[in-house]
Structures are given as C-alpha cells and as structure tokens.
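Q: Could you fold this chain for me?
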Amino acid sequence: MVNRLPRTVRLEIQRQLEQAGLESARWESRVLVETVLELSGGQPFPETPLTPAQLERLETMTARRCAHEPLQYLCGTWEFFGLPFAVGPGVLIPRQDTETLVETVLELRRETSSTRLLDLCSGSGCIPAAISAHLSGVTGDCVELSPQALPYLRRNLSRLAPDLQVVAGDVCSPPPELLQKQYDVITSNPPYLTAEDMTHLQPEVTHEPEQALFGGGDGLAFYRTLTPLWKPCLAEGGWLVYEAGMGQAESVLQILEENGFVRCRIVPDLAGIPRVILGAAAKKSSK
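A: Sure. Below is the predicted structure, expressed as structure tokens.
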C-alpha cells in the first residue's frame, strides 16, 4: 500500500476482502482502519495520510483476515453488552447470542442488593463482567482451565469486574474448597458443539480453541456433568443458567428437571432461537 488517506486505503482493503470471499468486506475494512487509527466506531476518518507504520500494520492485518483469521483477534478487543473485552488466539470470541444469558440473569437479580455469582468455563469473562457491570454488589468466582484463555480472563475482570475472582481449574473436577461455597446464580456457556458440528466449522471458527467448542458426541457432555456436580453450590432458590446450541434447549431442560431443578424454562435469543435454559434449586425440605 502506498501512502494514502485512510478513506482511500479502506477502499483498497475492501476490495481485497471481497476477493477473499468475505461477505462483510465493507464493514470489516472500516473496522480494520479504525483499529489502527484507534478510533471509536463511526468516528470520521482524519484527512491526514496514514504513517508507514500504520500502513504496514494494515497490510499485515488485511492479509491475515483474507486468510480467514477472525476479525476479533486482529482487533484485539471486541464489544459485548456494551463493554470492550480483550480477545486473541486461545480464547472464545464473545458473541451476541450470549447477551441473552446476561439479560436473563439481570432480570432474575435486578431487585436484589447483592449477588454471589459463579461462572463456569469463563473464557474471556464476558458473562460475569457484563453481569457485574449492570448489577450492584456482585461477588464470586470465575473458573477457567485453559492457560491461553486465563490471561484474557484476568485482564478483563481486573478492568471490568475487580470483585470477581479468577479460579484456574477444571469445571468438571474443581478444587474441593470451591465446592464448599454457596452462590445465588451459576452461569455457564459450556462447549456444546457436536461431533458433527466440528466437521463443518466456518474457517474463522477453526482458529478458536477446540476446548471451548466441542461438547462431546451430542454436544451435551458438559451439561450432564456440571448440573449434578454444581447443584449443591446453589443457595436455596438459586438459579443455574446455561447457554445451549441450536436444537439443544429441550434436552438441556430435561437434564435440569431430572436433577431436581424447578421453575425450569427456555429463553429465546434475538433471532428467536431457544438459547438460554434456566432452573431454580428447590427449597430444602425441613426435617
């Protein structure tokens, strides 16, 4: 790329992205230029030429995007529920579908003054951080196993939700002391892609960590394990709130009901797809 104004360079990038078969080339080209110029979305481009360093960075980012590396990784941050999250290779990219889970929890706890929250398979921390940013008095723990994802989780929580603690561990075999705690809400967007799903991933998704995607043959392995394991950690009347994939909601609902959860229901996302499944811990019977 020669030394040009940002708007001219954006058009050149758009053409390259279109040639690579990217459907949102116009929007993505703008995002790439905004990232290099450190502009907020929608800000007008300056009428000054890009520097050689900026041009070189854009050239590299464009080549990587043409190779179908996720745009979010190239930008280094991505917005979720109105908040900026650091993302990169090794961490699952926050998606708009997951905002339905956050909205569900906010509705459950909006009238409370404090919430003890446990988030399982935390990844970037987008779920617990968004909940913490919109509710008062949120404390608790976020569990993540991946050594690649943990730095992103720590960075995001330290900036957006400092009252939440990071626990490096396996949600299916957690530290015993964690199982002794009590929470008002347990959230999780666990790996839920099926074996069949994994054979048909979009090129961009193949760059994301398989550990955060694959949920066993039918995609339900984590729901079967996590539900009975963590149920004792819920305070009386506390809620377990899951995200699930397309076509899985009824099966996850059944898992909750089979494990004694009450008031179970399914919440659709903005596209009308059954996305969030939740149930409450039944009141303990008095003896």
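A (continued): The beta strands are 77-80, 83-86, 115-120, 138-144, 164-168, 183-188, 234-243, 261-268, 274-281.
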